[in-house]
Design the sequence.
């Protein structure tokens, strides 16, 4: 099996301290290198970077697409977790009072792409989807 390469994603925030609190304390991501204008986080082995860019934060709003009865925020990013990790994260986010765009649920029930999903936003309004499959081999299944 080929090892998955870590991805790198940079995204805008309007308050770096709020980003540090959310990504570090709420999401549990270890902070890496940083400066007064940006900071790296270890997002399940992937490198995400919050860049201070108040003029382009997502709070202004973006569109949505209908997916299995939900209005899914576009753009968004996230990780596919193991089901136990996903459940633990959902519980932690609920305990921390995170507001969900789409509360933790299972979609595409009984279909090849059945998955647990949840959508929420960081303090800058960036949409995040965390998902899990009971059978990760079905990640790209079409039927």
Sequence:
């Amino acid at each position: 099996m080929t090892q998955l390469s870590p991805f790198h994603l940079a995204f805008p925030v309007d308050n770096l301290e709020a980003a540090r609190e959310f990504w570090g304390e709420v999401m549990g991501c270890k902070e890496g290198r940083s400066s007064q204008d940006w900071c790296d986080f270890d997002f399940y082995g992937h490198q995400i970077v919050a860049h201070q860019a108040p003029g382009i934060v997502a709070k202004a709003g973006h569109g949505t697409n209908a997916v299995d009865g939900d209005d899914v925020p576009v753009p968004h990013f996230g990780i596919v977790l193991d089901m136990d990790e996903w459940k633990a994260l959902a519980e932690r986010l609920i305990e921390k009072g995170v507001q969900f765009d789409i509360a933790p649920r299972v979609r595409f029930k009984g279909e090849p792409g059945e998955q647990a999903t949840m959508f929420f936003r960081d303090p800058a309004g960036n949409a995040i989807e965390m998902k899990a499959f009971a059978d990760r081999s079905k990640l790209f299944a079409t039927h």
